[in-house]
Amino acid sequence: MIYLFHGTDVERVRAKAFEWVAAARKKEPNLAYVRLTREELSSAALEDAALSGGLFVSRLLVLIDDPFPAARAASTDEESDTQENAGSILEEHLDALVASDNAIVILAPKLAAAKAKKLVAKATKEYTFDKRAASIEARGFNSGLVNALSARSREKLWLEVNRALRAGDAPEMLHGLLHWKARDLMEKGSRVWSPAESRALSLALIELLQNSRRGGLDLSLSLEHFALSV
Fold first, then answer.
1. What CATH class has 1-131?
2. CA 78, CA 109: separation in Å to the nearest integer?
3. CATH node for 142-230
């Protein structure tokens, strides 16, 4: 079953999706949770998302984070092809994900109208968050965190990571924000980060998450180490 989060308000879409995930994990503690970035999408990964279960884990909760590239998503043809393929692979596996007993959360801010229509038709539940005037949220999108990364300030980034962790934000949510910002830097360019550096930043964050999943350093500590390496 698919739960779709989309809309023009990128900050609220991301915040609400991670809030939903946190609430679902609290409600059903035995859910096995995994977050898949665009770069990690493959037929094998999506087949596992749709079919996996087992003796000790009855259901999975899978967050597919921003699977569709923006119009200017990459600086090279090779990167563009790779990211377009990720979106196509997801569309090819939609029926299997819909039929699955697992909870599949698709986080797709600024989703193109044609793709939104297709996904909404398949989704069990749709959550849309569009920008509106003078919108104020209590806690959600951490602008201090992403601004520190954008400015390449390791001291500020380390402080923002620790503040967020002390406030109770899940490390997976912080990682998701940082990786989103890395891709945003790739797409829009930056005076501080060169195209090659922003791409390396994105890859480093993917590697950090994968190493943590394999039983390496705790994700919270990994994020602190990452902040000091920026």
1. alpha beta
2. 23
3. 1.20.272
